[in-house]
Amino acid sequence: MKEIVVISGKGGTGKTSLTASFAVLGGEDLVVADCDVDAADMHLLLEPDFALSEEFYSGELAVIDQELCTGCGDCAAVCRYDAIPVVDGRYVVDEIGCEGCGYCARICPTEAITNIEQNVGHWYRSKLRTGATMIHARLKIGADNSGKLVAKVKNEAKIVAERDGKGLILVDGSPGVGCPVVSSLSGASLVVLVTEPTVSGLHDLRRVHELVKMFGIPSGCIINKSDLNRDVLADLRRFLDEEGIVLLAEIPYDEKFTEAITSGRTIVEHDADLAGLVRDCWRKITKLVEDD
């Protein structure tokens, strides 16, 4: 089983819209995993049916039993996160600030504090309008443990792929270099880096590529909006050549991408010329995976 993971060093490069296009081109022959759980939006283009929805629990949260609490304040005194303020004369837990370490529960003289598992989001198994299955998720606002939710999405995608005899999983990863990206890269056969010819685009591409190199995963790169800055484009090409990263495509800026997204469709379903560019890119990607 092969995994193609699409990531970007920064947001706004067009990563998700391109990944959704690849999902359409792959049709029923793959399983799609949306691992951008902090800002999941690929469903807006692929129309999942949300057939299965399950809560996801991870981490713990302190809870104070007000009937047992004597108001001694020991818990607030030891909380390093200042997550136990006094509200209306009672000590309460700030759910956003609490890290679930359990120290307050250990020192409470009346055992008024317990730790409970946190519901930090939901994960879903859906059928797409392409006929493929997509595993996706949504993290609650302010919730932690997005890396663990990404791992859950990837594991469920593997289960579906094995069950349905699919040899390819297409993963839309998170931007940046944090825990969700590290979790997305686990088990990847090929990483597709999406960037743009801007100073921040080049800077963040360098950062995320360092991470990919640590995993020893082969990579290719798509330069989206390639005509924004010729000087930075030249720097990008030079960097890719020096690092041995395959240049998969240079896609010019075109407002038809915005038109496609506004209509709820991918670019390969909206414009023939750009569809040809993206289709050629997808062929290169699948060939790289097959040759691996």
Q: If you had to describe this structure to a student in words, what would you say it looks like?
A:
This protein has 292 residues and is of the alpha/beta class. The chain has two domains: 208 residues, Rossmann fold (3-Layer(aba) Sandwich), CATH 3.40.50.300; 62 residues, 2-Layer Sandwich (Alpha-Beta Plaits), CATH 3.30.70.20. It is 38% helix and 26% strand. The strands form two sheets. A nine-stranded mixed sheet has the order 3-6-7-2-8-1-9-10-11, sandwiched between helices. The longest helix is centred in the last third of the chain and has 20 residues.
Q: What descriptive keywords fit this protein?
A:
Rossmann fold, 2 domains, 38% helix, elongated, alpha/beta, Alpha-Beta Plaits, 292 residues, 11 strands
Distance between the termini: 12 Å
Rg, Å, rounded: 22 Å
Q: What structural class do the secondary elements suggest?
A: alpha/beta
Shape: elongated
**CATH class category name of the largest domain:** Alpha Beta
Put simply, the count of helices is 10
Q: Which consecutive residue ranges, at least 5 long each, have pLDDT under 50?
A: none
Strand order of the largest sheet: 3-6-7-2-8-1-9-10-11
Helix content, binned percent: 25-40%
**Major sheet:** 9 strands, mixed
